[in-house]
Predict the structure.
Amino acid sequence: MVCRPGFEDNPTEIVRHSAAHIMASAVVRLFPNAKPTIGPVIEDGFFYDFDYPPGFTENDLQKIEDEMRKIIKSNAPFERIPISREEAIRFFEERGDAYKVEIINDLPADAALTLYKHGDFTDLCRGPHVGYTKKVKAFKLLSIAGAYWRGDETKAQLQRIYGTAFLTREELDAHLVKIEEAKKRDHRRIGKDLELFSINENIGGGLVLWHPKGARIRHIIESFWKDEHFKAGYDLLYSPHIGRADLWETSGHLGFYSENMYSPMDIDELKYYIKPMNCPFHIMVYKDKLHSYRDLPYRWAELGTVYRYERSGVLHGLMRVRGFTQDDAHIICTKDQMQDEVLRTIRFCLYILRAFGFDHYEIYLATKPKDKYVGDVELWQRSEEALRRALDAESLSYQVDEGGGAFYGPKIDIKIEDAIGRKWQCSTIQFDFNLPERFDMTYVGADGQRHRPYMVHRALLGSLERFFGVMIEHYAGHFPFWLSPVQIKVLTIADDFIDYAGRVTEKLKQKNFRVECDSRGEKLGYKIREAQLQKVPYMIVIGEKENTEGTLSVRHSKKGDLGSLTLDGFLEILIKEQHSLQDAD
RNA sequence: GCCGACUUAGCUCAGCUGGUAGAGCAACUGAUUUGUAAUCAGUAGGUCAUCGGUUCAAUUCCGAUAGUCGGCUCCA
């Protein structure tokens, strides 16, 4: 058992930690051949990896839980046993436990080692633990999975058991409810129910079909995105899906990115690759002519569809796919403009994210890797400083990911937080010191000399596929009005009112609202239920009363019956709602 | 890719220890003309993922393949 540092004082972490030990002791009792390896506390619970080649089954979870209850009931104390390095190594060697020996050998030489023992189970551990096993009151084992020793797939495959524990039963139950809630929001489920998209095995894994309703939402996102980019001083580019091998050779992708690229195709005896990135194309636009410093900065954006090889096991709905459209842009500027451009980009990024209903973020500044990097140190420092200043200027709090930058430049990554607190990596703003060099990009400065421009690569939504998936889960399918594929459903009570309902539908359509009329011979309750399940924001009921008075009965999918309105009164509400882009739950 | 689980009608799922399948919803047809989350009746729909093996007999047992799901790793 190895704990994450910094959690020593958190009572929930301590309980989880102890629960992991108890689980390990239960596993060893039930499966004497299973060797405990490592098992930390994680964000929502804990896990423990065992070397046990036969593997565990789902049924074993119940058995292990039962055994854990017995151990808890015995109320054994947790004993802390300080031990010297040599003794510890001897202890685990005698037990034939090479994993623990490896862990000990990797610990700093001056580390004070301790064992923790409860009942007849002893484990290497920093602690602390609860006093007695009975202190672990609320726990549950959740799943089993394969994992590699130290996350390295060339090393032994281990069996991981995930579990969670809390101080009280109530907290545990609340957590389990949250897991259920998350399942209900699963974009794959909602995507099917609302007919937004599908992934078809005859086409291939990770390749998305956008159905009419999903495509409608995408169209709205794209239109908004393009309009805002023009307003923000960007120009749009379009580029092809494939390019010659030479291009990817020059860009370096065939060297450092080839494992993510698909095999080439032969065209007239030349090799062409389907693009995994848009950058080389944008650079070729730049290189089409000579540029003056007076023309910079260029801000070139493209909704560029790229294809990247992802291992079959990692594909996941819209969140992880093999073909996706990046909301990409490259900013090419001078050294003097660079600071301002970074600031503008961050502001623009947050503006766009807020428009789609995301206003909680986790921001990371990733700096120069220790050894593998291109460009001189001063360039890195200046650029990191620019990113830092921009974040500070916007009073954004961020974490520094020391050495976490790409080899070609420092970057800012923004994770957005959804309605139930999960984080999703979407936006990224990266300096690129590599490609301008490789493609020998230049501009003519005021001094008549050629200079290397700065290039910033950025995506705000990341990919439309993933962003759509995140939005589906964020809104649980209940999109804000401006994004709803069907905004209004007109429901008739009887055939006599189809005429009037048709006229209302037509008028709303003329005003550019997305409206459908349900004039089937079904009861009102049935039609409302269906519209509710399809999460249509507004329903309009048309019956005898409305027909004679020339009014509309308006129902909102969340607020319920809004009563009787005139068409103009209703339009007023709609126009107001259409313009308030943010409409998060 | 690796570990594990799973794959039965469009969807959600039954189907005991082998004797070739069933429900609800959806679809279709008809009746009903309905007031804020499910009207009634009927019809149709399945090579039980695919291929192979064991067996008199396989949805059921075994193997391979494909796909999906939970993880590992990586990332938009």
